[in-house]
């Protein structure tokens, strides 16, 4: 029955996706000396972190294999343990802490321990069950004390960048959730999930094109983070780009994009401070000409979102929802337009509180829109509409 399920899944993948293996396998698997060495190190460190359970499980397998009447059952368990460890080593292990890829081994070793204890209990000696019970309690106590202190397990608890990604994703969802915007991400597991926006996975784990067009040096870098194509991402013209959970250009796609004039010309960095469900500061890159997120034309004139203003402080989610720029007294916030603002143009500023800010044109640079306020408290600038002269 398990074989039928496996073959059914394999047939579906081949018919639907045109591949024998998952997309993630195309991204991660590369049989190079560096990758195999990393996989062996992962298995060794994972086995060490699972002690004493791993050693006891191995001892149980040896015990079962030398028992002629039960050898087949233990051989099946031992074969599966060895096959899985070999597979994990060949694919290079994993980058995340706490040895999650060894969970199947934990299950198999537990089966071996239980089976070995059953065989020992069947022996006539009365002290065997008591000894097994005491040994089990001792091992559990040791695991309870030792496991939280293991470095890999502590990292699994203290590693929190994924939850900073939740703050970034929720900020994007609040601001752009109904816009139909497309976001390019490297942390698809948190940014794409929490933002609920259509996403381009710049690392290729969820992108068929990138998976089928690997770089020539795959297998020598960071597992699962080697693919990328800056020209491909820019060609798809995402409305937003988020590197990591709100950092600067990173990995292959980020480095390639940052080296182009198109990225510098078309995308503006927007600093933000997310405050829910936790405080997190970062930056994302916004396509200035996007009709969904950037400067856009309307029946009234040219609409400039407030979050495109350059200010001393990061943009925030405003009192009325959505990303805003906070302008303080004595501060001049700027937005650079693609063309000079014509003389005689008028401005309407949507702000909180209303009618609390003014907009002008920088006389030396007619492409610069300047926003300021005389209020003691900061004013949240939601958008500025530039009405053409009559």
**Beta-strand level of the residues, as a percent range?**
15-25%
Low-confidence parts: none
- Individual helix count: 14
**Overall average residue pLDDT:** 91
Distance between the termini: 77 Å
Query: Which value, in Å, is the CA radius of gyration?
Result: 29 Å
The beta-strand count equals: 14
Largest β-sheet summary: 6 strands, antiparallel
* Category from helices, strands and their pairing: alpha+beta
The tally of structural domains comes to: 3
What would you call the shape? elongated
How do the helices and strands follow one another from N- to C-terminus?
HHHHHHHHHEHEHHEHHEEEEEEEEEEE
Helix content: 40-55%
Q: Can you walk me through this structure?
A:
There is one protein chain. This protein is α+β, with helices and mostly antiparallel strands. It folds into 3 domains: 31-158, no CATH class; 160-289, no CATH class; 295-390, no CATH class. 43% of the residues lie in helices and 18% in strands. It has 14 helices and 14 strands. It has helices at 2-17, 23-28, 33-49, 53-65, 71-91, 103-121, 127-146, 151-158, 161-176, 188-195, 208-212, 230-235, 251-258, 261-266, and strands at 182-185, 198-201, 240-242, 267-274, 280-287, 296-297, 302-305, 316-317, 323-327, 333-336, 346-352, 358-361, 368-372, 379-387. Strands 6, 7, 8, 9, 11 and 14 form a 6-stranded antiparallel β-sheet that branches. Strands 2-1-3-5-4 form a 5-stranded mixed β-sheet. Strand 1, helix 10 and strand 2 form a beta-alpha-beta unit. Helix 4 crosses helix 5. The protein is elongated. The mean pLDDT is 91.
